[in-house]
Amino acid sequence: MGLLSAPAAVDKREYWGFSLYDWANSGYVTTVGTVLFAPYLTSVAETAACGYSGTTDHPCRTNLDVLGLGISPGSLAFYVVTVATLVSALFLPVVGAIADRMARKKLLMCAFAWAGALAACCMVFVGGGRWGLGALLLFIGNLCLGSSLVVYDSILIDIAPPDQRDAVSSRAWAFGYAGGFILLLVNLAVVTAHDALGMSQGTAVRLSLLSAGLWWGLFTFFPFLRLRDRPPTSVVQVRSGSLVRQSFGQLAATLKHLRSYPMTMLFLIAYLFFNDGIQTVISVSSTYGEKQLGFETQVLIATILMVQFVAFFGAIVFGRVAARYGAHRTITGGLVIWMLIVIAGFLLPAHQIVPFLAMGAAIGIVLGGTQALSRSAFSQLIPKGREAEYFSLYQAGERGTSWLGTLVFGLVHQITGSYRPAIVALGLFFVIGLVLLVRVDMRRGITEAGNAQPSIV
């Protein structure tokens, strides 16, 4: 069996459709969310505030006026992610509740994907002093990404039986890293050769942002054509009314009875903490590398490319380790490695590329595995009929929608004027998440949710 072949008992057509959506949205996650947009938006905001883009030696100290609040240009992108996720806390659960009652889940997923892709394409117009447009488009893109992933994650339960979910989730994540790697490689060539192509670096970055939107939108047609619609099953009965009204009623019932599933709730809380740490490290890495360590954009993109390449194999390896030792123990080991990575990030010397690359390789090893296995482990703990709704709560801490981590990072930077204490502050999220995760009894949680027990958890 090949590394990315469909596991046994999983329909090949749907497996490819499911996996290719990870390929599609990873173009946005890597090019926009991870590498290019936060540093670019920071530079646009700094130019608007100070007349120049700040550097390590000459930082921009003038704040932006945002609704009467003084906002540091270096913290703007992280505050936008924070606001997007706070809005998501209200919006995504309703999306999940609607998805659980729809017979056309894939259409809902793809509609959000295409809306987010359009926002990413419009980032080509962010330049000059238009940092406000950039902030708005980042908000829309992240909100649409989270909404599409709520539905996408719930489809894992539809297409894969319990014993195959770790494998399907890990391989789909590997597809995502492969897609992100290929698009980012093309963008690296464009940004690096911008002079030879007769354009400024800013223009090259904006065209790369456009390519991410096109990639996301076009490849979303594959899951739209290959995934199968299924009628809702075991939907909780609530008072009659419109679909939205019923969905709010189902959400209220789920939140009321969540305490009946203590292991599910404990896993969700643990995930909220440790994934906030993971997502914040991912989203701030390029800004940290450029503004704190003094690396050029080309070095940052090359490093992320290496991370994507390593993460492709890391996701596969973690899936195979989980098949032997269980997802719970494998995730726990991954969090220990994450804590060591944060400490190493604080100690990294400026302008020294070898230690920076070493840390990037370590991130690649654990990045995809911890996230993919968290998704499949959580799927085992969800009561039937509430899959998308529970995944909407799960998505509050998913990639690109972290709020507490980015808030802490932005606040610590604004207070200290340095990204080093901000990066080390993220270690607290991994510590709390690990302490909570080791208290989760997976077997008990699966039984409480009324699901079949897999052979290994």
From TrEMBL:
Keyword Cell membrane: no
GO cellular component term, pick one: plasma membrane
Main localization of the protein described in the UniProt heading: membrane
GO molecular function, one term: transmembrane transporter activity
Domain of life: Bacteria
Its membrane topology: Multi-pass membrane protein
Keywords for the protein's UniProt record, in alphabetical order: Membrane, Transmembrane, Transmembrane helix, Transport
Segments crossing the lipid bilayer: 76-95, 107-126, 132-152, 172-193, 205-225, 265-288, 300-319, 331-350, 356-378, 399-416, 422-440
Residues annotated as domain Major facilitator superfamily (MFS) profile: 263-457
Subcellular location: Cell membrane
Protein name: UMF1 family MFS transporter
Source species taxonomy: Bacteria, Bacillati, Actinomycetota, Actinomycetes, Propionibacteriales
